[in-house]
Amino acid sequence: MAPAVSVVMPMYNVEKYVGACLESILNQTFQDFEVIVVDNGSTDNSAAVLESYVPRFGGRLKTSRIEKNSGGPSPAYNKAVALSRGKYVFVMDSDDLLMNNALEILYNFAEKNDADVVNMDRSYVFFSDTEKPFPTQENLRLNLWSKRVVDKAAFEPDDIGERVKNICGGFMGRTAWQKFVRRDLLMENNITFPENARIAHDTVWAAEVFCCARKILTISAPLYIYREVASSISHSKKPPQESIPSSMKSTLYVLNHVDKFLAGQKFFQENPQYHWALLNYFERICLGDLIYLTQDSALPAEPEFFGILKPEMANTLGEYGATLVYLLTASNFARSRLLMASQRIAELENQLKQIQGS
Questions:
Q1: pLDDT digits (tens, 9 = 90+) for 300-328
Q2: Going by DSSP bridges, is the β-strand pair 97-98/33-40 parallel, antiparallel, or unpaired?
Q3: pLDDT tens, position by position, 232-277
Q4: How far, in Å, CA of 318 to CA of 304, rounded?
Q5: Which of 123, 173, 249, 321 could be disulfide-bonded to 224 (CB atoms 3.0-4.6 Å)?
Q6: What SS3 class is residue 126?
């Protein structure tokens, strides 16, 4: 018989933490699950640690491997979902942890409310080093993952337009592991992680899930424990000469992926304003990540930016590659200047209010 829940995760060089992750799954109060781990070309002892846990799961832990890491987790995510058999899919990162009752609570919420998606608006976070694979209660910190949280379980709007507004406003959460999802929803709508995206891959997946789901329930229980590791991919900064070309390629790929997906959905065919809103949202997300990934958290000046990007991108973009690179550069810096101006205006308005109130 197929299990109720498939816990799916990619794995890459997490030998220090994957054992703790698997222990947290073994300790679940809800046991009708399978775990599918796809090794994304690990070069450390992660695979050996993983294999040592196979007997303890009694046939419920399935493993697969991608020999060469593509630079991002999406291929491993997609392979794990394709191998899953559960009614529901729950995505995890292989260095994170679950509260002992997480799967039970998520499954019961989904079943009792006939929800396609159970969305968590908060989690625990703890900073970890190699000597502390498990957190203590003292170093767990509650973290909110959206600009709007709920006091008790609440349904998201049925109207897709309202959901798009919430996505673009940061009200529905960007991470994949916040979502407990009915597997048929993913299969019927061909929702996958964008395979060549080095940034925003889970944000794309989450947005597509939100746009296609029939019923979405957001809950307030912190059931997931996110591990902060200073050496992780999300904390690795690279010099602009490396980060700018790869991030811009990823941005173009993400926008193309999102555009194709939305073009196949009836609602977005009939409401192009929401199609545009999501493309605009993902362009801002990707360029925001680009700024973060530069070593000094600041983009170089326009000429340097153009000089870094042109050799790498001109051929990719075809006959008018240099022109398109120039337009990308100009639009990015125009947006940055507008953002800084709006922030400065907000600061001045606050100062004026303080002066008027004194």
A1: 778 887 887 788 777 777 788 888 888 87
A2: unpaired
A3: 544 455 666 777 777 778 888 899 999 999 999 999 999 999 999 9
A4: 21
A5: 123
A6: strand
Whether the Cβ atoms of residue 218 and residue 154 lie closer than 8 Å to each other: yes
Residue 200 and residue 286 in contact, taking contact as beta carbons nearer than 8 Å: yes
Look up residue 29 and give its amino acid. T
Cα distances (Å, whole numbers) of residue 110 to 4, 33, 76, 199, 251 = 11, 15, 26, 29, 34
Which token pair is 186? 């993913």
Give the C-alpha distances (Å, rounded to integers) separating 305 from 39, 198, 255, 323, 330.
36, 19, 20, 14, 10
Query: Which one-letter DSSP state was computed for residue 294?
Result: B
Q: What is the CA radius of gyration of the chain?
A: 21
What single-letter DSSP state applies at residue 186? H
Bridge partners, 5 (sequence order):
33, 88
**Helix (H) / strand (E) containing 287:** helix 272-293
pTM here is: 0.84
Which residue, chain included where needed, has tokens 């997300």?
285
Please report how the helices 240-263 and 302-313 are oriented relative to each other, as an axis angle in degrees rounded to 10: 70
Distance CA 168, CA 172 (A): 9
CB atoms < 10 A from the CB of 220, how many?
A: 14
Pair type for strands 179-182 and 117-120 = antiparallel
Instruction: Return d(Cα 63, Cα 351) in angstroms, integer.
Output: 58
Joined tokens for residue 70: 């593509």
What are the distances in angstroms from CA 355 to CA 188, 217, 344, 345? 57, 44, 17, 15
Q: What is residue 177's DSSP assignment? A: G
Q: Helices 272-293 and 201-212 meet at what angle, rounded to 10?
A: 160
Q: Concatenate the DSSP letters of all residues of 45-74 into one string.
A: SHHHHHHHHTGGGTT-EEEEEESS--SSSH
Q: What is the largest CA-CA distance in the chain?
A: 70
Amino acid at the residue 322: A
H or E element that contains 257: helix 240-263
The alpha carbon of 245 is separated from its chain's Cα centroid by a whole number of angstroms, namely 21
C-alpha–C-alpha distance, residues 277 and 166, integer Å: 11
Distance CA 171, CA 162 (A): 11
Other CB atoms within 10 Å distance of the CB of residue 34: 20
